[in-house]
Amino acid sequence: MHHNTREQAKGKSVIKSVRAAATAALAAPLLALAFAAPANAAPEDVTLTAEIEGNYVKAAITNNSPVEILCEWATRPDEGPIVTSPGGRIYPGEVRSYTGWTVPDGSYTVSWWCRTVDASEFWGTGDFGFDVKTAEPIPFTAPVVPDDGGTDDGDNADDGSLGDLDPGILVGILEALTTGSAALGSS
Predict the structure, then answer these.
(1) Can you say whether the dihedral through the CA atoms of 118, 121, 126, 130 is positive or negative?
(2) I need a labelling partner for 68 at 20 to 30 A (CA). Which of 8, 75, 87, 122 fits?
(3) Are 62 and 71 in contact (CB under 8 A)?
């Protein structure tokens, strides 16, 4: 009988070990999911702003994520070669300003991508070889004429410009001035 009790205790011990192993095996993936970084990056974590003056384009990338990232940006013309930045690492909380380049006259978009160092999260315009799209490309046409800071209501009446003035009106004004000048000189 004594032998039988030992066998029963041994059997219960094996059952407990199997249960513990099974519980650990089932819990491990659930814990990994609970503590893993999200697969989809929040769009506001990493952003790009572009500044275009005439034909000169430059950009700044802001990293509001809690991790170090790698980034690259480019100007993509409607026709012709893509001009790409050298890229680089951007640390959490950093705003990296990139010196830009001059582009020929034409239509372009500014595209970009960033990823975590371990490539677990991506941000960008989705047209850089990565399918993840968290922002729209920024379209522009060069040269970009700087805004004078005023409001453009379209009437050009007070902006010092001739705007849509019909040249025929100028001819009529000049003729009236010439006629008036001649009339004044004859008296």
Answers:
(1) positive
(2) 75
(3) no
- Per mean pLDDT, which range of 43-47, 75-79, 120-124, 156-160 is the poorest? 156-160
Q: Which two tokens stand for residue 14?
A: 């094996």
Higher pLDDT, 130 or 62: 62
Length of the chain: 187
CA distances in angstroms from 52 to 66, 73, 105, 145, listed in the order given: 29, 14, 12, 9
Taking a C-beta distance cutoff of 8 angstroms, is the pair 33, 71 a contact?
A: no
| Beta pairing partners, 114 | 71, 123
Q: How far apart are CA 58 and CA 49, in angstroms?
A: 9
Q: How much is the pLDDT for 20? A: 41
What average pLDDT does this structure show over 22-49? Answer: 56
Dihedral through CA 159, CA 160, CA 166, CA 172, nearest 10? Answer: 140
Matching residue, tokens 């004044």 = 184
Please give the helix or strand (H or E) that residue 10 lies within, else none: helix 2-35
What pLDDT does 35 receive?
35
Other beta carbons within 10 Å of 146: 9
Backbone angles phi, psi at 97, to 5 degrees: -95, 130
Q: Output helix, strand, coil percentages for the chain, rounded to the nearest 5.
A: 30, 35, 35
Residues 6 or more apart whose CB falls under 8 angstroms from that of 129 comprise 113
